[in-house]
Design goal:
Number of strands: 11
Order of helices and strands: EHEHEHEHEEHEEHEHEHEH
Helix content: 25-40%
Distance between the termini: 43 Å
Radius of gyration: 19 Å
Structural class: alpha/beta
Length: 273
């Protein structure tokens, strides 16, 4: 099978590595010339792309398009997500060989729910420009592509695992003096479960929207206090509660994808002795 991965950073490279090992013809993209040599070890072909790249040419003869783009900074959201979606729409509207499109979105599209549970049927209520861009991007993939394309969209929780280890994250937060809202609930997903979910979607030719968060929903205070104690690190400081919405506080329900047969390899992210 010919698989095209648009955006091959932390998540995309792990997906590429799996499918390349499985024997698929994997084409990946990067915007950084310095990354080409490393990506050549996990892909059949590496393409250097920018906002001017004609995707209608590079997507010819591809069966599956996996989009795992990510912004370098918060100022790059529109370029990374919305502009990419518009380029994909233009390319697939001209000449569409793609049978399935898999896109990794974010559960931040639900906005602020004041700690309530949300599932895939809950309305999207973005609270800032970045979240609105993510919602607009989802709308393009779900509503505007040719009907011949099966679209599978994963709303990811906060990614951890491997290069995004919990210990490194805590140390970095301490270094930057970042103080999270202690009362907000966590919604987490291990990178290996993202890769497994994408593979599951490909194998089952799945379509639709799926929340991709694990089963653990401790508050941030509970989560980081437990990990700091386990790792023998200085406890984090938290923002003082103001009694109102903290932007993005929710517990993300993952029952839909589990009912469809997917099993999490990392269902919780809590320290154990």
């Amino acid at each position: 099978m010919n698989i095209f991965i648009l955006g091959c950073g932390f998540v995309g490279s792990k997906i590429a590595e799996l499918f390349f090992k499985q024997g698929h013809t994997v084409t990946v993209t990067t915007t950084s010339e310095s990354k080409i040599q490393a990506l050549e070890q996990i892909a059949s072909q590496v393409l250097l792309v920018d906002s001017q790249t004609d995707l209608s040419l590079v997507l010819r003869h591809q069966d599956v398009l996996i989009i795992t783009v990510a912004p370098k900074t918060k100022d790059d959201y529109e370029e990374a997500y919305l502009k990419t979606a518009e380029l994909v729409l233009k390319a697939l509207s001209q000449e569409c060989h793609i049978k399935q499109l898999i896109y990794t979105s974010s559960c931040s599209v639900y906005g602020e729910k004041q700690g309530q549970w949300v599932d895939e049927n809950h309305p999207l209520e973005p609270t800032n420009r970045s979240q609105q861009i993510l919602c607009d991007t989802e709308s393009i993939y779900l509503n505007k592509l040719p009907t011949s394309v099966k679209v599978c969209l994963f709303r990811l929780g906060e990614i951890y695992g491997l290069d995004k280890a919990i210990e490194f994250k805590i140390k970095n937060m301490t270094l930057l003096n970042y103080k999270p809202h202690g009362d907000n609930f966590t919604n987490l997903i291990h990178v290996e479960d993202i890769v497994r979910a994408v593979n599951w979607s490909l194998q089952n030719k799945s379509s639709g929207v799926f929340n991709l968060c694990n089963d653990s929903h401790l508050t941030r205070r509970e989560f980081y206090d437990a990990w700091c104690q386990f790792l023998n690190l200085k406890p984090l400081e938290f923002r003082a509660s103001k009694g109102g919405a903290h932007r993005g506080n929710k517990k993300v329900n993952n029952h839909k994808i589990k009912l469809m047969g997917f099993e999490f390899e990392h269902p919780v992210c809590e320290p154990t002795n």
